[in-house]
Amino acid sequence: MVARPAAEVARDLLGWRIVSRIDGTRTSGRIVETEAYVGAHDPACHGAVGLTRRNRTMFGPPGRAYVYFIYGMHWCFNVVTGREGDPEAVLVRALEPLEGRDTMVARRGRDRDPANGPARLCQALGIDGAMDGHRIDRPPLYLEPPPRPVSPDEVTVSGRIGIRKARDWPLRFFLTHSPHVSSGPHVPASSETPWRP
DNA sequence: TAGACGATGACCT
DNA sequence: GGTCATCGTCTAG
C-alpha cells in the first residue's frame, strides 16, 4: 500500500469490505464510518506523544493494522496510512454486517446491530491485539474494494467522537443514510482545516 | 513503582 | 443524560 494522507484514506475507505477469517470463521462487513488521525501534529493522535511501545505500529509502514487496547476492556482497529516514521492512521468505527452475521452476534453476545462502534466491530470480527501489525492485504484479515466507489454526496463529514483534543476537526466520515453508523454524539466540524499545512 | 488516564460500551434513570 | 466497569500504558518521582 502506498502512503497517503489519513484524511483522504478515511474518506475513500467508506464502502470497502473488511473480511476476517480469524478463528477459521469468515465474517465480513462494509465500512460505513471512519475517523482520521493525521500525524504527530494532531493532538488527538496516539503518535503525537512520539514513538512508544504501544503505538510503534503507527510509526511503521502503511497498509498495516494498528490494534490497541483501550479503557481496560476494548480493542480498536486502525489502518496505518502514513510513511514509516509518520504516524497517520484511520480508525474504523462502524460496519454494516455482510457475511457471518450469526457469528458476529454470537461473539458479541447481544445486539441486532453487532458492529456499530469501534470496539463492537473488533469483537464481532474477532480482532484483538494479535492482529496488531498485520498486513491488511492478506488473510486472516484483509480489505476488499467496493463494487462501485462511494460518491461524495453519500458522505457526511463531522468532528470526531470520544476525544477531548481537536474534537471539532472535520475528520470523521460516515455514509449519510446508513443505519449502521455508531451512535456517538454529533460533533459539528469546524470550518477550519487545521490539519493542512 | 504508584497513580492517572483513556479514539468505549453497558446499564440505569 | 449520567455513571461506572476495568486494565494496559505512560509518566513522574
Structural description of this entry:
Helix content is 12%, strand content 28%. It has 197 residues and is of the alpha+beta class. The protein has a single domain, classed as Methylpurine-DNA glycosylase (MPG) (3-methyladenine DNA Glycosylase, Chain A), CATH 3.10.300. Strands 1, 2, 3, 4, 5, 6, 7, 8 and 9 form a nine-stranded antiparallel sheet that branches. A hairpin with a 7-residue loop joins strand 4 (74-80) and strand 5 (88-99). It is globular. The chain binds a DNA duplex (13 and 13 nucleotides) through strand 3, strand 4 and helix 3.
CA(first)-CA(last) distance: 24 Å
Which parts are unreliable, with pLDDT below 50 for 5 consecutive residues or more? none
Q: Kindly provide the name of the CATH class.
A: Alpha Beta
The radius of gyration is 15 Å
This entry's quaternary arrangement is single chain
The biggest sheet amounts to: 9 strands, antiparallel
Along the chain, the helix and strand elements come as HEEEEEHHEEEE
CATH superfamily: Methylpurine-DNA glycosylase (MPG)
Number of helices: 3
Summing up helix and strand content along with how strands pair, one would put the structural category as: alpha+beta
Integer count of domains = 1
What's the CATH architecture name? Roll
Question: What average pLDDT do the residues reach?
Answer: 91
The total strand number stands at 9
**What percentage of residues falls in helices of 4 or more residues?**
10-25%
* Strand portion: 25-35%
- At CATH level 3, the topology is 3-methyladenine DNA Glycosylase, Chain A
What characteristic shape results from the CA principal axes? globular
